[in-house]
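Technical note accompanying the year-one report. For the benefit of new consortium partners, we illustrate the data format agreed upon in the data management plan: each record pairs a sequence with a structure-token string. No post-processing was applied to the example shown here.
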Amino acid sequence: MATPTSTGQLEQGTRVPREIELPAPTAWPVILAFGFTLMFAGLLTSVSVTVLGVVLSIAGSVGWFREVFPHEHEEVVPVVPEELSISTERRVVERVPLAEDQARAWLPIETYPLSAGVKGGIAGSIAMAVLACAYGLIKFGSIWYPINLLSGGISDVALSWSPAEMNSFHAVTFGLAVLLHGSVSLLVGLLYGAMLPMFARRPIVLGGLIAPVLWSGLLYSILDILDPLLQKRIDWYWFVASQVAFGVVAGLVVLRQARVRTHENMPFALRAGIEAPGIMSRKGDGEKR
């Protein structure tokens, strides 16, 4: 690959080499990584997969080391100087505002408090629960089916029940479903509160639509290995719809909360809440805070 060099350097008399030496391309790192992947995948599948992973890992390690020792394999690449032209189609330059006590921008400048993530998680969990219960009522005539099915994420007891048992109320599975649904919803809500300020444009599209679809696709690809019984009972169209409902509602609730300034650029004394005269701002009554 040619290394671009501006003509300004040539005009200033900078001597540019005509050729440079670069490490030779090799496929051994890819083979080594694939071998490690098969080694761990064999823990969930079969011993033969692990054995194949060990063989590929050893071959990848030996081959990679031979590319480096005793002499590094290199190839000569010609250097072709070219003019670098930087252009843009924007008519207005967007500038990030800086606070008076900042020498550089800390992004994001403002973020949401923890309470915003908690509120978003609670609201999203309610929207998701309403949609899931509607699915159970429409398809099975009972709101308890999706609740009993959700408890399968912790215990497989309900996954072996008959349809009549799945449509009935059970205190144990109800408690497991509430525990799993509530804890995961709060964690995802906190994650939304931390990440949405980083997306300056259309955060709901990414956090409420794209992320739930990607998460559902990842779960669909691995659930058959992690829990085959649960994989057979999930209606994935309703599952994706409930994930999107959670993402949109949680994102909208978080975006409606008031932002607070980030504290990365503040002195440690302020972040730790230590009385620091001369650093901490004054209250209205003249006392330090």
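Partners are asked to follow this layout when depositing records. Residues 114-139 form the longest helix (26 residues).
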